[in-house]
Amino acid sequence: MKTGRILLCFLAAAALAGCAVAREGATLTSVGPLRPGQARVVVFRPPGNGGLLDVGWAVRLDGAPLGNIKTGTFAYVDRSAGHHQLSFSDANFPRPSLFDFDAAPGRTYVFRIEMNEKGRMILAGSVSAGLAGLVVTSAIGAASDDRGIYDFIPVDEATGHEILAQLRLAPP
User: Fold this and answer.
1) Cα separation of 107 and 140, whole Å?
2) What is the pLDDT of residue 34?
3) pLDDT of residue 81
4) CA dihedral defined by 111, 72, 91, 122, rounded to 10 degrees?
5) Quick one: which H or E segment has residue 128?
6) Distance between CA 111 and CA 100 in Å, rounded?
7) pLDDT at residue 19 in the model
8) What is the CA radius of gyration of the chain?
9) C-alpha span between 110 and 85 (Å, rounded)
């Protein structure tokens, strides 16, 4: 019984430690200006509780790594104007999350990545029913549509700069 209490206290302390993550690093304002003909693509995860295992999300742009984005961080890249695709794959779900967009030169495109309703359903199934719940809800989610379990939400440039001023650049 005493061992159980010690374990419970340890888990509670670890969970609280996960709540107080302070990010360090560059801000978007410290990044230089765009070169002519280029567009800037920024993806962020809002600040919040990353939990015990705040793993970075390996987002890709046009198949190339964009960054390993943790809670409260962002990653960016400057690319030529034109058609681009953001993608993110979760090892627990076979379908990647994709977002296609066209970028104009001289503009900054800001996207928030977050779990969508399909992902929340799968997460709830795995929490409530363990591995069996994960398998069942993943199968239902895969059959329901071709989307992945995350969405890239476009944020207007002004709001994006306001949000990004509070976030830090994700480590490479």
Assistant:
1) 39
2) 92
3) 96
4) -80
5) helix 117-144
6) 12
7) 45
8) 18
9) 13
Residue type, 8: L
Nearest to 113 by CA among 67, 160, 154: 154
Residue ranges per domain, the chain? 2-169
Consecutive 10-residue runs of the chain (172 residues): their mean pLDDT? 43 43 62 92 86 81 94 94 94 84 96 89 68 57 71 93 89 74
Looking at residue 146, its pLDDT comes to 74
**pLDDT of amino acid 97:** 94
CA distance 30 to 7: 43
Residues 6+ apart with CB under 8 A from 109: 39, 40, 41, 42, 101, 103, 154, 157
34-51 burial by CB neighbour count: b if 16+ within 10 A, else e? Answer: eeeebbbbbbbbebeebe
